[in-house]
């Protein structure tokens, strides 16, 4: 009996503590569909309302799986004004749903995370949420493989005047180009391109893209130059974050079209040779000016492998008189390779550069 009373007391304490932590109750998780029995739908609504009370005045994040869920969830949250607290909206669209002509809009959403199948659905959301500040577009991953997006060439451009950060996940270079084709973000400051951690490293889809890049000398030069000549707004980008496939193959070509980048982060899922990045960041023209990223201040690497001499020359070039801009180097699992093998050196950096150990945003 004493054990039961003790357990009951502990559970009561935990419940009280949890209810007092408003940050635990900020996610709104509706059922996956509205096509439920009336009793189950009512229970789902009551569950959502119970979570709203301890969340107090915190910002809310809403997760939705169908367009048909948006109106009833909006009405439910509107009953007590909670719809005004929704700042983030995550949507994983049903690929067989009818494309929406218009959407019920949560008026104060600042961040959209869209895991949907084609550009028509993306376009519908962006027209309705044109004031967002952060946007994530994801190709859906099913059974460890990416489903491809459709459409885009005939869609009107969408003005996103307040967009600050754009993240594109699991997209090929062609799809990145298609998605960026419909976006006009004049204030965009950060661009992130990466693949999802749930994809296997030896996924044959990405291997095919690797072979195209290696075997087709035309593709790396023409794709990024076409991209940047069409998307002048990207010239405002100050922060470039590249993961996995993009870090291995796109860094140099993207930097050629982004002269204002001040922060570069390269995040690889496993130890990856990035000597070509170091060499590209070392290049100077006949006037002694840096060719790529002349305004680069912060350089970050995760799982990068470099030849010791090339890495050292890159730092020297970035800190020489007349071109010095680099002020901070952040590293995580970076190895320097000498003729005798691979070693994780205690790095020595030139004067004026701060060396930091770094925790990447995703690993």
Structure description:
With 363 residues, the chain is α/β, with parallel strands linked by helices. It folds into 2 domains: 2-262 and 269-275 and 290-303, no CATH class; 263-268 and 276-289 and 304-363, no CATH class. Helix content is 33%, strand content 23%. Strands 1, 2, 3, 4, 5, 9, 11, 12, 13, 14, 15, 16, 17 and 18 form a 14-stranded mixed sheet that branches. Strand 14, helix 11 and strand 15 (328-332) form a beta-alpha-beta unit. Helix 10 (275-282) packs parallel to helix 11 (308-318). The longest helix has 19 residues, at 2-20. The chain is elongated.
In brief:
This protein has helices at 2-20, 38-55, 70-78, 119-128, 173-181, 204-215, 218-230, 245-249, 251-256, 275-282, 308-318; strands at residues 27-28, 60-64, 86-91, 111-115, 134-138, 141-142, 145-146, 158-159, 165-169, 183-184, 190-194, 239-243, 263-273, 298-307, 328-332, 335-338, 341-343, 354-357. The chain is α/β, with parallel strands linked by helices and 363 residues long. The longest helix is centred in the first third of the chain and has 19 residues, at 2-20.
> Number of helical runs?
11
Instruction: Domain count, please report it.
Output: 2
Inertia-based shape: elongated
Q: Which band does the percent of strand residues land in? A: 15-25%
Uncertain segments of ≥5 residues (pLDDT<50)?
142-147, 201-230
Report on the biggest sheet: 14 strands, mixed
Average pLDDT confidence is 74
Q: How many beta-strand segments?
A: 18
Radius of gyration: 24 Å
Helical content (DSSP H or I, runs of 4+): 25-40%
| Euclidean distance between termini CA atoms | 47 Å
* Class inferred from helices and paired strands: alpha/beta
N-to-C SSE series? HEHEHEEHEEEEEHEEHHEHHEHEHEEEE
Protein name: F-box domain-containing protein
Organism: Calocera viscosa (strain TUFC12733)
């Amino acid at each position: 009996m004493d054990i039961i009373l003790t357990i009951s007391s502990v559970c009561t304490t935990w419940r009280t503590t949890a209810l007092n932590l408003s940050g635990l109750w900020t996610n709104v998780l509706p059922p996956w569909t509205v096509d439920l029995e009336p009793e189950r739908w009512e229970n789902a609504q009551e569950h959502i309302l119970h979570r709203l009370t301890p969340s107090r005045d915190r910002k809310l994040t809403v997760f939705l799986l169908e367009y048909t869920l948006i109106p009833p969830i909006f009405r439910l949250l509107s009953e007590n004004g909670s719809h005004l607290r929704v700042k983030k909206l995550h949507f994983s669209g049903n690929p067989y749903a009818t494309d929406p002509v218009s959407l019920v809009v949560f008026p104060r959403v600042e961040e959209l995370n869209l895991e949907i199948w084609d550009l028509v659905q993306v376009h519908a959301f962006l027209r309705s949420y044109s004031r967002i500040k952060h946007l994530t577009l994801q190709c859906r991953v099913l059974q460890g493989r990416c489903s491809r997006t459709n459409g885009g060439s005939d869609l009107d451009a969408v003005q996103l005047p307040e967009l600050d950060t754009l993240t594109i996940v699991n997209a090929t270079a062609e799809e990145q180009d298609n998605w960026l084709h419909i976006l006009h973000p004049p204030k965009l400051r950060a661009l992130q391109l990466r693949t999802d951690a749930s994809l296997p490293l030896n996924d044959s889809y990405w291997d095919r893209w690797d072979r195209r890049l290696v075997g087709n000398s035309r593709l790396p030069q023409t794709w990024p130059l076409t991209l940047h000549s069409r998307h002048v707004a990207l010239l405002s980008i100050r922060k470039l974050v590249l993961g996995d496939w993009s870090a291995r193959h796109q860094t140099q070509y993207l930097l050629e079209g982004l002269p204002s980048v001040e922060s570069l982060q390269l995040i690889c899922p496993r130890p990856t040779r990035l000597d070509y990045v170091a060499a590209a960041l070392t290049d100077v023209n006949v006037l002694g000016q840096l060719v790529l990223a002349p305004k680069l201040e912060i350089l970050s690497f995760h799982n990068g492998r470099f030849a010791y001499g090339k890495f050292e020359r890159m730092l020297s070039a970035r800190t020489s008189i007349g071109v010095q801009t680099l002020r901070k180097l952040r590293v995580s699992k970076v190895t320097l390779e000498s003729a005798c093998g691979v070693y994780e050196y205690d790095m020595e950096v030139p004067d004026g550069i701060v060396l930091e150990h770094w925790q990447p945003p995703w690993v």
